[in-house]
Amino acid sequence: MEKLQGEVMEISGSQMVIEALRHEEVEVVFGYPGGAIMNVYDEVYKQNYFKHILTRHEQAALHAADGYARASGRVGVAFVTSGPGFTNAVTGLATAYMDSVPMVVISGQVPITMIGTDAFQEIDAVGISRPCVKHNYLVKDVSELPRILKEAFYIARTGRPGPVHVDLPKDVTAQIGKFEYPKTISMQTYKPTLKGNIRQIKKAVEAIKNAKRPIFYLGGGVINSGASSLVREMAAVSGIPAVETLMARGTLRYDDPLLLGMVGMHGSYVANMGMSEADLMIAFGPRFDDRVTGKLSEFAKHAKIIHVDIDPSSIGKLVDVDYPIVGDLKNVLETMLPRVKEEIDPNKYQNWRELLSRYNDIHPLKYEDSNEVIKPQWVIEQVGRTLGDKAIVTTDVGQHQMWSAQFYPFTFPRQWVSSGGLGTMGFGLPAAMGAKWAQKDKISINFTGDGSILMNIQELMTAIESKTPVINIILNNNFLGMVRQWQTFFYDKRYSSTDLNMQPDFVKLVESFGGVGFHVETKEEFDKALDAAIKSGVVALIDVKVNRLENVLPMVPAGGTLYNMMLDYKD
Amino acid sequence: MDLRRVISVIVLNEHGVLARISGLFAGRGYNIDSLTVAPVPNTNLSRLTIVTSGNSRVLEQIVKQLHKLIPTYKVIESCEFVEKEMALIKIPLKESFDGLDAMLKAYNGVIANSGDDFIVVMVADDTPRVASFLKAVKKYNPTEIVMGGSVAMDL
User: Fold this and answer.
1) Would an 8 Å CB–CB cutoff place A178 in contact with chain B?
2) 3-class DSSP string for A514-567
3) Fewer CB in a 10 Å sphere around the end CB: N or C, chain A?
4) CB atoms within 10 A of CB B117
5) In terms of Cα–Cα distance, which of A273, A196, A275 is closest to A230?
6) Which of residues B44, B77, B110 is at a domain's end?
7) d(CA B86, CA B82)
8) For chain B, how many structural domains are there in total?
9) Parallel, antiparallel, or unpaired for β A304-309 and A242-244?
10) Inter-chain contact A311–B67, Cβ cutoff 8 Å?
11) Above 80 in pLDDT, residue A15?
12) Among A556, A568, A569, which residue's Cα sits nearest to residue A267?
């Protein structure tokens, strides 16, 4: 089907899907077939524009597309069938929506003539996906399909990115229609604001000039906007220290002296003190999540706030903002940076930086290493020392996720892939596969827990079949560790349903899929296992027995204040 | 403190758009006091008039979240507008209609229809005036009241 751009073809709805993906230069699709989407899969079989990777569960297909999108900055694409295929995918949509990840998900649907009859594998898919996507479509006629697909990709990647769901009835996939993929797009009702208001930008620069204790509060929007290098430059020329949210890790290099570390519930002492004592908070694309702010009435009490965000509804949602700027961060910074260079003297904040550096000296981010038992933090650091910028790091959700965010030496944006907003266990392995397809020259490391890994363990098969080497490192403490930690701190050690003493033999498990596995109980064994895993070229699983009762510290208890952190826990 | 607010939303008149808006209110815990919807003549758009209430932060979020919906063309949250509401009231014929005529005149009301043993009166007026009419009409022991919800036009 070699056709020139703009040429009109008479093709089926299924062929239109393939052609649209070709025009969007999609290189990989993750999915799982089924009755309602079989016509589309028949066309997948006949084409060679993109690679299709069969996952072993629809949820994993979406997380893989999500991991691909986060690691590449491109739109991730997934196919699922109707009914249970779609409902399995919902967690993936919600995960991507909470973290503003661009995706297009196409689900099969029963034929239009059967919608509403409780047909086999029928479910009101757009009704279910509505609150967890940026936008969705039910395609009623093949003539609408080219426009809808064009809009879906456009909406997913522009403005505040997010997943778009297209529900495609089976009879529409068989209908023949005219296909001409629109080259440009202009939607009557959707026009994201990209350029920041110049007067507001000037006022913000003026506020920076007048501040004594300014701080950059960097959120996921920095990564999404592709503004990391501008932010690095901004920090360098202004001498203003910065904190990163979980989603913004990798914006500044880990060894940048201006980086105070991660902020929030498990942020560093200096980052949280910096936020609490600043007189000006310069927020670039964060969303003032409760895991960052703690108790709102005590959050940034002494600070004026500049908030740059592409989503107006993010501004002033939880915290009053003094200098709101709606726009694409990259665009705004291009205007702001020359003014900052000209007007801001980095020496001015010397005292402020010194104060912060004293805070860091008093309570640095730390853990007590041991020779008897492997500390989970050591594993993260050791992988960082061994692989550094050669690795792309994904995680599941829980203690290991926080330790990874705290201790991995991140050096570039999109090196870090983690489910922040929704906190989806089972995200790591499929996301690590997607990330590997996005950054093929990197080693894909998935830090996971003995709880999380079992939530999508079947994807070991996908990794083997699709030749996607992913190294899973289980920080195995035989616990649902984060819940256990809360039970220790706040529930008088009543370990309700968190003890995971019953476990599979992870090494035999991964071997049964055709991968390689390693049991690790000493540091020497770990080094050898990591080396062997890298050399194996197949999916690997390193089961590291770590200190059972290790806690993630420091910690701001939920609803607590940032300046009042729990720094130690003594039994 | 909760404030009452009338918001007009102009949206693409397409499949599922009302569900997006009502779902937004339900999902985020916002109030809907009344909601009316009808196509805007000679366009592909519909106008929704939503009467809601909440504190100023909530009201700001409602406007922003409505605007964020892809099919939303415009959100009008004006201070100056004409707001009218309609009500139909069924009164049994066995009641004495003493003074009803004068009352209808006072509230721009009419007798809209009648049956074997009832009449239906209709009023269309400002929301507070409709409320006071409904209070006054109680003495005729109405058997049914249907309210239309506010429609508004900014000035």
Assistant:
1) no
2) CCEEEEECCHHHHHHHHHHHHHHCCCEEEEEEECCCCCCCCECCCCCCCCCCEC
3) C
4) 9
5) A196
6) B77
7) 13
8) 2
9) unpaired
10) no
11) yes
12) A556
**A-contacting residues of B 92-151, CB under 8 Å?**
none
* Residue-range definition of the domain harbouring residue B25: 3-77
SS3 for A387-453, per residue?
Answer: HHHHEEEEECCCHHHHHHHHHCCCCCCCCEECCCCCCCCCCHHHHHHHHHHHCCCCEEEEEEECCHH
Question: In chain A, how many domains are there?
Answer: 3
Q: What are B27-38's pLDDT values in tens digits?
A: 999 999 999 999
- Could you tell me whether strands A391-395 and A443-449 are parallel, antiparallel, or unpaired per DSSP bridges? parallel
Contacts with A135 from chain B: Cβ below 8 Å:
70
Q: Which two tokens stand for residue A293?
A: 């702010």
Looking at residue A143, its amino acid is: S
Same-domain pairing of B31 and B91: no
How close B71 comes to chain A (CA, Å)? Answer: 6
Residue B4 · residue B47 · CB < 8 Å: no
For residue B42, what is the domain's CATH number?
A: 3.30.70.260
Residues B145 and B121 in one domain: yes
Q: A205 and A135: one domain?
A: no
Q: Do A131 and B23 touch (CB under 8 A)?
A: yes
Question: How far is residue A109 from each of residues A31, A104, A337, measured CA to CA in Å?
Answer: 15, 16, 49
Chain mean pLDDT for chain A: 97
Q: Is the dihedral of CA A111, A115, A118, A124 positive or negative?
A: positive
Q: Which of residues 380-409 of A touch B (CB under 8 A)?
A: none
- Asked whether residue A561 is domain-assigned, the answer is no
ipTM metric: 0.91
Phi (first) and psi of residue A136, to 5 degrees? -145, 165
Please state which of the ranges A1-5, A190-194, A443-447 shows the lowest mean pLDDT.
A1-5
Domain containing residue A293: 198-362
Rounded (5°) CA angle A513-A518-A521: 150
Nearest chain B residue to A133 by CA distance is B69
What is the greatest pairwise CA distance in chain A? 72
pTM listed for this prediction: 0.96
Q: Which residues in A lie closer than 8 A to residue B19 (C-beta atoms)? A: 127, 130
Report the largest interatomic distance among the alpha carbons of chain B, rounded to a whole angstrom.
Answer: 54
Contact A167, A137 (CB under 8 A): yes
Task: Name B12's bridge partners.
Answer: B45
